[in-house]
Amino acid sequence: MKKVLYIELENCIGCRSCLAACTQCGGHEQRNRNYVIDVNPFVDRQTMPMMCLHCENPPCARSCPVQAIQVHETGAVLSAMTEKCLGCQNCTIACPYGIPKFDVEQNLMYKCDLCIDRTKDGIPPMCASVCPTNTLQWVTEEELAVKKSQFRLNNGMMASMEDPYLENKTNVHVSLPGILEGKEKLF
Length: 187
Hints:
The protein is of the alpha+beta class. The chain has helices spanning 17-24, 59-62, 90-94, 116-119, 126-130, 141-150, 177-181, and strands at residues 3-8, 35-38, 47-50, 101-103, 108-110, 136-140, 172-175. The strands form three sheets. It has a three-stranded mixed beta sheet. A hairpin with a 4-residue loop joins strand 4 and strand 5 (108-110). The two termini are 32 Å apart. The model is unreliable at 154-161 (pLDDT under 50).
């Protein structure tokens, strides 16, 4: 049964457990591949995890002149392959979400690979497995459909990154109702 990463942004308390767990995933070389940002640090304490959305037609991969960025059969967009990456940084420029980062010392792009060594076997990515507030959830498509029906905004807009897309359809789904409606944080 296919599972997807679902992000419920209004639950984030900024604990950064997801970041600590990310470094522990095999193949991440103890590098953090996700980020937590302060949304409006001078006004409130709202934080937001920044994860790769694993676009179905990823601009990072499309912009790579040597096909160093591959899309796994599960839909996960992988980091640049060391043996192919030229260090041109086209991928970091092409991503509309600002996710891929460039390591100057290694001359290599790195980004979230959705813990492919885990998720290909149905095991939740490290970030979702440790999130204490269910901001990051590993859900089935049926569970995702239920969540989508629960989070409808008063104006009838779907509170998820379904439509419109900034770039194209993504494999990670984000719930934005609290932020869009200006609600208070839950925690």
